[in-house]
Amino acid sequence: MARRKFWGWGLEGEGLTAPEVEQLGGVFADRLGLAGLRIQQPPRVAELDLPEPRVAPPASLEAAFSTDPYDRAAHTYGRSFRDLVRAFRREYAHAPDLVAFPRDEGELVSVLDWCTDSGVAAIPFGGGSSVVGGVEPDVGDGYRGAVSVDLRNLDGVLEVDQASRAARIAAGTLGPALEAQLKPHGLTLRHFPQSFEWSTLGGWIATRSGGHFATLHTHIDEFVEAVRVVTPRGVLQTRRLPASGAGPSPERLFCGSEGTLGVITEAWMRVQQRPRFRAGASVSFADFRDAVQAVREIAQSGLNPANCRLLGHDEARMSGSGDGTHSILVLGFESADHEMDPWLARALEICGSHRGEVHGGGDDPAATWRAAFLRGGYLRDGLVQLGLISETFETAVTWDRFWEFHEGVLAATEQAVREACGSGVVSCRFAYAYPDGPAPYYSVYAPGRPGQELRQWDDIKVAAAEAIAALGGTITHHHAVGRDHRRWYLREVPGLFADVLRGAKAELDPSGIMNPGVLLESGAVTRGSEGGRP
Amino acid sequence: MARRKFWGWGLEGEGLTAPEVEQLGGVFADRLGLAGLRIQQPPRVAELDLPEPRVAPPASLEAAFSTDPYDRAAHTYGRSFRDLVRAFRREYAHAPDLVAFPRDEGELVSVLDWCTDSGVAAIPFGGGSSVVGGVEPDVGDGYRGAVSVDLRNLDGVLEVDQASRAARIAAGTLGPALEAQLKPHGLTLRHFPQSFEWSTLGGWIATRSGGHFATLHTHIDEFVEAVRVVTPRGVLQTRRLPASGAGPSPERLFCGSEGTLGVITEAWMRVQQRPRFRAGASVSFADFRDAVQAVREIAQSGLNPANCRLLGHDEARMSGSGDGTHSILVLGFESADHEMDPWLARALEICGSHRGEVHGGGDDPAATWRAAFLRGGYLRDGLVQLGLISETFETAVTWDRFWEFHEGVLAATEQAVREACGSGVVSCRFAYAYPDGPAPYYSVYAPGRPGQELRQWDDIKVAAAEAIAALGGTITHHHAVGRDHRRWYLREVPGLFADVLRGAKAELDPSGIMNPGVLLESGAVTRGSEGGRP
Hints:
Two copies of one chain form a homodimer.
Chain A: H1 18-32, E1 65-66, H2 69-74, H3 81-88, E2 98-100, H4 105-118, E3 120-125, E4 145-150, E5 157-161, E6 166-170, H5 175-182, E7 187-188, H6 201-207, E8 224-231, E9 234-237, H7 250-254, E10 263-270, E11 272-273, E12 277-285, H8 288-299, E13 307-311, H9 313-318, E14 327-335, H10 341-352, E15 357-358, H11 365-374, H12 376-385, E16 388-394, H13 402-421, E17 425-434, E18 437-447, H14 453-470, H15 486-492, H16 495-508
């Protein structure tokens, strides 16, 4: 069986072929108005200069650990632009000293015990698709070493409760296996982030992943019925309940904890019957403002479409779904219980009242966009291979501030792109829509200068993040905080809430070994270090 | 203007008249098969023997405090059966030493500072409708005194954002004022707990109140966009966002915190346009099992009715909505955007497939039940006045365990009722319904023995709560934990999560003055006191 690329998306042998990369280069040179693009060769393990492991696994756990260079390389990075650039540069100085593959929960407990006793950082690793430095073992000097803890052996749908439409699923289960094992039961989680193929249930929960549903049940949080977590202080299991009013929700604390409080090992998930009825359409808007108004009205209508993705003019063009003269709204309703035609009819009426025109005949832009979305991981690899700067960042903001926000973020990012790269495109789509605001998703494409790509990226990233923070958005709607967003995250959350998280971490991970540097500063926690009267 | 009854529901002069109480006695004597019922007289302030205040307010804050006997009596209890019995017995030994009425947030900060410095417990008080001992200043000997902090002066809808359909609302705002002030904007929060008239936004958030919507957006949690909290360590304000994936949700920590971490002073709430379209029906089921199946199917259908309350046979009889030969499902759809007829039609089809019959003509059981629901506070007063034992408890459980759970809870409670009271009725309704389980709500009516009512109640309460805990329900779906449910709550939540709450409290309320004895044990917090390996 082919193994996963240690540096990029998917299995070895998969992804864009050399001619496809060349073709992509042609397309993007054309879209960005560039003369042509060079093609870099991906790294091979033999080329890497991995540092010697600073720690050795204990004899009792030797079978659970690997020091194989491929394993260490494959657990050095997530899949962000920064990660890919460094992979192409063969920079693997922060490879984990060891990779643990605990074969069951008991072994995971032993691994964390050893890490605690040895002063070694533990980095939970699901599918490794983080784009925010969430799995990178760059933990500073306060640790004797760093172990990437890969959950792949905690795998599978373990139990199905048909009556309650719920399933107990191991955290290391990848998207496709999860769906394949639910399917014989007529069930589906319907959680399809862009990383679906190479991300896990545990990773989705730990990062508050955004899924299939564009409205209503957007984040994985809504589907977590109960969760099980191995913390350095022991195992925590919440009770299966459809709902409760007993104190603050324990599940919600672990949604978004990003491995800093412990390792999620399994969860009871609310699943769905497989949809039998579908109704959908693509709607074109000559004016982006009209499209935004239509989305707002639909989001506030209570119709709750499963799909409600708005591609701005540039986004439609860059994804090949349109020619850049229109924004495109992809609408979809689905149900396992009833025909959705009345729902779609009303949504299209709303679009019509904002000058939206239903796409008739020819290529379906929704299908084009969907295909591009699912190939996103490979596309990103290809763009880096072509030396392009590419970045996506996403946020959410209330409707009242949307236009000022959007224009401000766009202007700041475009200016940074011009200054850093000379030229480039910043496009926007709405990934999710809420009654009180959209979740805009921005994509940046620009020419890179060889050897300068990280600095160029950083300049753009900082400009975009500063604009988001200043204009009242969130630093992330569904990509998580990781290490890359920490400085903006700690400005976004109230200081006293960061102290609460420090307090929670002090209770569950007193030695501070769990994913240090993610969400909070690295190291063991001291109480009340940053909060206080505003 | 009439002032509020210090001992019971509503304003002085409101509620059941003497003849109405007599009539109620006749009805319940009949329903319970009793010979007749005596009528007790409600207490008057002059009859109470309040203890001398143990502390005096500081001179600088004198205007914010009251030692008036009426004020102290009116802040001694919530509105549970236990509270009412003790009120009728003129037992006011745990009256707060002082009642604070801070006139603005600054004064609230000063009050909490003084409490912290003086070792005095602070009990946040919204509408005082707690039925779980959540506002009772019985804080043990570890404090020099107890202050009830009444939020009534932090009042009103402060700001409206029409575009985002959101409003900034002061925490002390009572239900009717909140709705009256939203109405001119065409908006509504649509949060109508039974306590609506005499409960506040801050209380709803602090206790994870259950509202109008029987499916989908059941708890107030869903509508909290941002929250502002005065803690003993300072003010915490979360950012207005439609959604975020940046770390664990700060809002969700304060939903259900029950005044133990600080005082909620205001919140940005997601509000609704006022519904213009409605569709509803009452459906009768000869067999409760059929009705339960229909509710499950509707809850899993994605139709998301606003109302979906199922009254069991006895519940229908005891509320006067039926004759006890049928269960009744009250279904309602509403929208500000579109006709709901296709939604109702499909829901009725589901009911029909489970032998449900739409109620045609004559009295509408839904209207009868709704009227009884809204008069619930007065009814409870009347029942206590008649010397009856009455208690309601509510929970939630997954569908797979529902029948075993329901039969077990019913059997345990009925046995306890028989043993404690000789006879009585235990009825059940579904207050809320989720895809993965219902939220059953049980009502107990039984004859009391003069002077023994609290012991009788306690025997029944313990039996019911033990059955709920043993059979996998939650100790509360929407009545909160307070002091009365604490021992079961601490068995329900994982020990390590209770430690997390202790850690959060240690960060925000290091002296442990905030509502001691609620959720957690009373007193300043020491870390890691109960958790650890299971």
